[in-house]
Amino acid sequence: MPLVIYKMDDQLIVAKDACPHRGVPLSLGKNDGQGVVCRYHGLRFGSEGKCNRIPAHPQHKISDRFHLRTYASVEKYGLIWCSLTAAQNAEPTIPRMPFWDDAEYQQLVCPKTNIQRFAGRQIEGFMM
After folding, report:
1. Closest-CA residue to 36 (of 50, 57, 22)
2. In this structure, what CATH number is given to the domain that contains residue 70?
3. Which end of the chain is more exposed for a tag (fewer CB within 10 A), N or C?
């Protein structure tokens, strides 16, 4: 499933890469400092994936159905980790890397690539 990732202050938001209004990929939009803005109709999604602006109806109360489906995520070891099954406020279970901050060990972060496979297999492939 394609995901969109953005930050609001210190909060990392990972959500399905589709605007709930018309399904346009939010990754085609931009972050204006108050959230990620959908390129099609300008809906903006801020903290916790909540829609905070609908340009066509600025005076209307925003329905919960316009909020994004977000996923539990954490930034660690130079990567962004998320869980598609854990509750949003939970921290995803990630591998423990006890020597990551040890200067005696080399830290490797996989280059950006999309091979459409499980993250564990991607890491395994880059470690060999």
Report:
1. 50
2. 2.102.10.10
3. C
